[in-house]
Amino acid sequence: MSFYRDFNDKIAIEAWNGERRQPYETIGVKRLSPTVGAEISGVDLSKEVSDVQFAEIRRALDENLAIVFRDQDISREHHKRFGLRFGKSLHRHELAATRFSHDGPFDPEFLSWKTGRDSRFTAGDGWHPDVSCDPSPIAVSLLRVTKTPPLGGDTAFANMYLAYEFLSDPIKSLLDGLTAIHDGSLAWTAGYGAKPDPGKTYPQSEHPVVATHPRTGRKFLYVNASFTSHIVQLTRRESDALLQFLFRHVEGQLALQTRVHWQPHSLLVWDNWASQHHAVWDYYPEERWGERVSVVTGEAPQARLDLSVAAE
Question: Coil, strand or helix: which one is 257?
Fold first, then answer.
């Protein structure tokens, strides 16, 4: 049997893996796959992280998009404190009030869930970034799974820089300048059966189909099957066809993806703009509990940036 890989895919993977990455001095970084994900060692998140060490953690996140810390026996206060190193504000999810707290009083800056035998759905069961319907979408998410099943329950990640780079030049040209609507009601009403409080609607925002990352200056694909309803500049039929192609492009490209295996006392951190993730629900009827905090920076995805500013 022969295998065929598109020329763009090969060039993109070669460029991604050929980039010169500087060594780390205060942390260990073990990559989980050639394209996305890394395991971080040498850090105790129950203590204050020094500025020097955090700078290396931030760089590891920029380079790998999803990083996991093992053997971290941390409290909810530690969880929030570390989250605030990535930005000044923690996100308050529209559905937080409908959930519960695993440990201590309800805190709107945590989004908690519990999936078990009687669950009709589980949080994150589909490729998505978190809450892309917000005007300023979540920049970084930090997740703890507080009860793990004996087997399964991985979180999968996909690299959206490479999702863009894998596309042919004509498709890239077509996408350049297009914008799409991201609608919270798609994910929460259709996906979870949730309804907004009387007199309220879920967030809806317009973002570029291809955005430029404010930290790295790299282009990434920014549409997803959970939140993106349509492309503004196209007819509905054209939009549906193009979006379905892009959704399948992300789902079907295993070279873009990795899976993070959960262990007790792990903390998973990801770049929520340049990656998508998928909570794998393969552990029925076992239970999986989790809670996350997420960071917002006030920025909105932009098609192009002043790269001299992005590099600062």
Answer: strand
Point out the catalytic residue in the list 91, 128, 215, 288. 128
Is the separation of the CB atoms in 192 and 204 below 8 Å? no
- Let me know if 292 is a catalytic residue: yes
Q: Does residue 19 sit within a domain? A: yes
Q: Give pLDDT tens digits for 69-125.
A: 999 999 999 999 999 999 989 998 765 544 445 556 778 899 988 899 888 777 778
265 is catalytic: no
Given the residues 79, 249, 277, 288, select the one marked as catalytic: 277
Who contacts 133 (Cβ-Cβ below 8 Å, separation ≥6)? Answer: 182, 183, 184, 187, 202, 203, 204, 205, 227
| Encoded amino acid at 200, one letter | K
Q: What is the pTM of this model?
A: 0.91
- Are the C-beta atoms of residues 166 and 9 closer than 8 Å to each other? yes
CATH of the domain at 279: 3.60.130.10
Element (H, E) at 38: strand 38-41
